[in-house]
Amino acid sequence: MTLYKQNFRIILTYLIVLVLPSACAQLFKLTPQIFLLTTIFDLLGALGLLVFNRRRTANSLEYHPAPLKTIIMWGISGILLTLLVQVLAGIVDHLIFKNSANSLNTITLMTAMRQQPWLILAVTIAAPVMEEIVFRGAIFGGLSGTINPLWAALISSLLFSLLHQDGHLIIYAAIGLFLCWLYRKTGSLYTTIISHAGMNLLVTLTYLLR
Question: Largest alpha-carbon pair distance within the chain?
Answer without folding.
Answer: 49
